[in-house]
């Protein structure tokens, strides 16, 4: 069965970077996009970007342009999300999610368990 | 960005009740609307895709429908495990955007 297992909680200082991994298993890794979505306390889910695990192409939300980097190690079946220039409002739970592209729309059919990132000096 | 507005933000219901949650899109999104359930401390899980498609393994008491830019998630005969927060999400345009969530609590 499909599993997305994320790395553990992180604490980052303001201005620093954090990198979260998302080990995928149970399906053909290069057949699906991986998206990153975050959820700050009391806030709605916020989409950050995606990576094509086949081509390595990426697309990022304008809100994170210049600070976000999504990459993938195809041989390890593991995508990564790195957020730099951290600020307090980046404290959130970060999720990876598998993206399914269909003729009737795209959706996130499997999610990682989430990684808590806390920005604190 | 397309704005998604859910109502109500929370509701109290009893086991066996019928529950309806609404999500309104700021622009036409056709049927590109998905619903997710999230329990405390857990990741969201997909319930409904393309406005009314039932995800594999999801009980048939969950149904979705559309009227213009208004979308509805209905839970027939609420089960104890259905007490959770529900989110809508549009996939018509990038960036995909989510509603603010509806928390379903036990009365």
Describe what you observe in this structure.
The complex is a heterodimer of chains A (121) and B (107). Helices cover 0% and strands 55% of the residues of chain A. Chain A has 121 residues and is mostly beta strands. In chain A, the strands form two sheets. In chain A, strands 2, 4, 5, 6, 9, 10 and 11 form a seven-stranded mixed beta sheet that branches. Chain A has a four-stranded antiparallel beta sheet with strand order 1-3-8-7, with no helix packed on it. In chain A, a hairpin with a 2-residue loop joins strand 9 and strand 10. Chain A starts with a strand and ends with a strand. The model of chain A has no long low-confidence stretch (mean pLDDT 96). Chain B is mostly beta strands. Chain B contains no helices and eleven strands. Chain B has strands spanning 4-7, 10-13, 19-25, 33-38, 45-49, 53-54, 62-67, 70-75, 85-90, 97-98, 102-106. The termini of chain B are far apart. The mean pLDDT of chain B is 96. The interface between A and B is medium-sized, with 21 and 26 residues.
Provide the descriptors you would attach to this structure in a database record.
heterodimer; A: 121 residues; mainly beta; seven-stranded mixed β-sheet; four-stranded antiparallel β-sheet; 0% helix; 55% strand; B: 107 residues; 11 strands; globular
């Amino acid at each position: 069965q499909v599993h997305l297992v994320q790395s553990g909680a992180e604490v980052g200082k303001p201005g620093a970077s954090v990198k979260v991994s998302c080990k995928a298993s149970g399906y053909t890794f290069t057949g699906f996009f991986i998206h990153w979505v975050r959820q700050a306390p009391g806030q709605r889910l916020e989409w950050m970007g995606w990576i094509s695990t086949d081509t390595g192409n990426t697309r990022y939300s304008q809100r994170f342009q210049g600070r976000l980097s999504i990459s993938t190690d195809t041989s390890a079946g593991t995508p990564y999300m790195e957020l730099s220039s951290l600020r307090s409002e980046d404290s959130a739970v970060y999720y990876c999610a598998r993206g399914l592209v269909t003729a009737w729309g795209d959706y996130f059919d499997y999610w990682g368990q989430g990684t808590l990132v806390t920005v604190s000096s | 960005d397309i704005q998604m507005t859910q109502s109500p933000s929370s509701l109290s219901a009893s086991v066996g009740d019928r529950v309806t949650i609404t999500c309104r899109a700021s622009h036409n999104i056709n049927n590109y609307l998905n619903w997710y359930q999230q329990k405390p401390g857990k990741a969201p899980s997909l319930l409904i895709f393309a406005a009314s498609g039932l995800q594999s393994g999801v009980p048939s008491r969950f149904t979705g429908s559309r009227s213009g830019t208004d979308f509805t998630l209905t839970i027939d005969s609420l089960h104890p495990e259905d007490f959770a927060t529900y989110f809508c999400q549009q996939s018509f345009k990038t960036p995909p955007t989510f509603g603010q969530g509806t928390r379903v609590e036990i009365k």
